[in-house]
Design brief:
CATH class of the largest domain: Alpha Beta
Mean pLDDT: 86
Shape: elongated
Order of helices and strands: EHEHEHEHEHEEEEHEHHEE
Low-confidence stretches: none
Number of domains: 2
Number of strands: 12
Strand order of the largest sheet: 2-1-3-4-5
CATH architecture of the largest domain: 3-Layer(aba) Sandwich
Bound molecules: calcium ion
CATH topology of the largest domain: Rossmann fold
CATH superfamily of the largest domain: Response regulator
Structural class: alpha/beta
């Protein structure tokens, strides 16, 4: 069972979130201050932390910054105002996602699922820092892709898609799964944008984009990276 730590000083919100996530099948632990949250995060090593920005004692931004020095635990921030979002992003605290109050519990649960899936996929393959397949070399640590020794410039989205595919050779992904895993987005309307990214990616890494050797189309499903 996945454990989620919820850090929030408003008892009503804390209670609602804890009950909802408990019903979703998570083991939920709660903390009502930054100090307690930091302490529990260190002791329990939860799978994910939902962290309010405005907290008594150590605020959520400082808790987040501190935790990032110590671990890669996924963090979703709760912010009271939209303008705090700029601050969150500007400070590059390393939070995985944020949600603005008031929020729906369903939305929070959806964000949690996405972040857990994304970080899960990333962790699976941290072991492998370089993948070599034929002429293609993907260096994850350097975020560098070369084809026959020639460096290829990829956009962040193209790199994310290639990374997900190449790390799971032979596994077929739907467009939705690719969006979700690579970008943490699940908007149905964006599904077809995957095709555009894949087609651009093929132009850059395939010798013959019309007859691809690395990123293969799985009819009726989506795409897969060729088996090794
Ligand atoms: Ca608060």
């Amino acid at each position: 069972m996945r454990q989620i730590l919820v850090v929030e000083d408003e008892p009503k919100i804390l209670q609602m979130v804890a009950t909802y996530l408990g019903n979703e099948g998570y083991k939920v632990t709660t903390a009502a201050s930054g100090t307690e949250g930091l302490d529990l995060a260190r002791r329990l090593q939860p799978d994910l932390i939902v962290l309010d920005v405005m907290l008594p004692g150590i605020n959520g931004l400082d808790v987040c910054r501190q935790l990032r020095r110590e671990s890669q635990v996924p963090i979703i921030m709760l912010t009271a105002k939209a303008e705090e979002v700029d601050k969150l992003l500007g400070l590059e605290l390393g939070a995985d996602d944020y949600i603005t109050k008031p929020f729906s519990l369903r939305e929070l649960a959806a964000r949690i699922r996405v972040v857990l899936r994304r970080t899960g996929l990333n962790q699976e393959s941290l072991l492998e820092e370089v993948i070599n397949v034929g002429d293609l070399k993907v260096d994850f640590a350097r975020r560098e892709v070369t084809v026959a020794g020639r460096e290829v410039e990829l956009t962040p989205t193209e790199f994310a898609l290639l990374a997900v595919l190449a790390r799971h050779p032979g596994r077929a992904f739907s467009r939705m799964q690719l969006l979700d895993a690579a970008l943490g987005e699940t908007y149905a309307g964006y599904e077809r944008s995957v095709d555009t990214h894949i087609s651009n990616l093929r132009r850059k890494i395939e010798e013959d984009p019309a007859n691809p050797a690395f990123i293969l189309t799985v009819f009726g499903i989506g795409y897969k990276f060729r088996s090794r």
